[in-house]
Amino acid sequence: MTTRPDDQLRRMLEQTLIPPTTVTELDPDTIDSTTSRVGSVAGSLAESYQLNSQHTLASYTRLPDDDTRSTVRKFYFETTLNAFNRLHEQETRWTLHASELPARLQQLLSPMWSNPAVVDSLYALDVLVLIDGALWRCVPGAPGFLLEKSWESAHQSKLQAAVPDQDLGASDGLIFVVGHLARSSYLSGDRAVRSVGLTAGVLTGAIFAAGAHPAVEIGVRIIENFIDATANQVLGCDGVERSLVAVLNLAAAPQPGPPPSAPAPAASVPTSPPTPSPAAADAKADPATDAVPGSHQPGPVAGRSAEALEVAAQFDGLTASDRLAVNEALAATADVLELGLPATLQRVTHRIFERSVQEFFTAEQGSTQLPDELVHFTRPDGAGIPLPEVPDVPEATLAEALQLRRSVRSYENIPLELDELAGLLHLAAGSTGTEDGYGVRGMPKFPYPSIGGLDSNELGLIISRVEGVVPGYYVYDKVGHALVPRLRGDLRLSLVTATFESEWLFYAPVVLALVNDQKKVNWKYKTRGYRISHLDQGALMQNLGLVAAALGLGSCAVAGYFDEVLNRILGYEGQDAFVAALMAVGRPNRLSHGG
After folding, report:
1. What span, in angstroms and rounded, lies between the C-alpha atoms of 77 and 560?
2. pLDDT digit string (tens) for 21-49?
3. Cα(193)–Cα(173) distance, integer angstroms
4. Domain residue spans in the chain?
5. pLDDT tens, residue by residue, 214-264
6. DSSP code of residue 291
7. CATH number of 6-32+43-252
8. 372-586 is classed in which CATH architecture?
């Protein structure tokens, strides 16, 4: 292969990070032998892989030379370690130092930063460790971990389904060995799977050896039989470029217990306040107040006020993953105060989203496979009532539509025609075609931009007067161009009750509900998805307003409503799916006004 100068190769790595698709050369001798062997009943998938993965002279000469291999490895290890050090110095919730783990777990994992052979193997692997409600990714060559994701009961249930013949509930810990073909193929070409298998063996052997040390007393059992698709999905792996190789099930041997008067604290992800200074720790506490002598700590027990005690009690009742979220809010508050600004809710929320970019870019975003439970959004809904086709596009130009668009709050007292409604929905929100993506054939495209092309929008319609449509609440099937019934009946009085400006909404023949569905984007974008997904609603709202103007209709967006009341009326739980905005639509009358 062509040798590049070291600095040129590093610049290329900085720009790409993901390796190009490996091209497999087909050798005539290999093809003949594969065909004859696989064609027989004695052939196996393993033999088929082996025969098809033989290096040809051409593929062998494309393998990198030693200098290039060294540069690539050095680049990966340096950038990973630097990212961890930078985040750890900022004391974010996305890092964990090994010193904060139970001693036995520290010793078990120590080969990953102390054994040169194991450290070298981590180029082709990601090692994920489940620690008290969170999944952490080991930093190769350093006693540290980066947060991969929070681990909820739903994740544990799904993982258990992937290993139906094992009782994971009795486990004292889990280590996931994940092969990274994307990185490995940089150096190993079409034999990256072999490289991953070899390095996984080195890693697991070292962990087994560490677990056998008398001071560790942790039993390590390897699980290699699992349902790949389910296990990879729960870990956030795509199953191809990043896929689970093995699960190490940990079972701690019984440890001598402390005396009853001094119970040992439970090991957990660090969530407690900072450790007191040595001077404060050495000082003798006053038993009357349980406070350090000489310190001013008003209030009852532990020098805390009743309000602080109540907050502490609430915090103690949270799960480990819930505490991570609370601590992130506290860290964002501290950031705002460091700037000398009052920690208003607006500033703290904004700072949380600023910090969330670190979560997105430091968490491994290896999975590009759309979760199974979201695939139905890419297909027509069989329960939909078909809408008329829209063959004609309005003749109004974009400039004319922009000039015509105004907020209209007064409508003619006549129903909308079904053709008008179908035209508005299809032109503003209906699918404009498909393309393959996220491991799904025929992902729909829409006439507005959306976060990652995932479209967090659900477009609902409160219909009171449309020709041929029974009043009620419907959802527009953007893929199948149909109305899916959700609620039947006249909802106008309920709608007016849920808003606080707008008796005029009662007279709108249709009120659109722009619903934010976080499930569509949270699997990929985490916290950041909540911020960016609101842009989806804005893009869709603009489309609806412009298309309505081009069709001679009036519209008006409404944000003044009681969230809990409106979500309850329309059947949304209000957290992962909630109404982001309303938009009334109708034919404007001569009294119409707006801006």
Report:
1. 52
2. 333 333 444 444 333 333 444 455 565 56
3. 27
4. 6-32+43-252, 372-586
5. 777 778 888 888 998 899 888 888 887 889 999 998 875 544 444 444 333
6. B
7. 3.40.109
8. 3-Layer(aba) Sandwich (3.40)
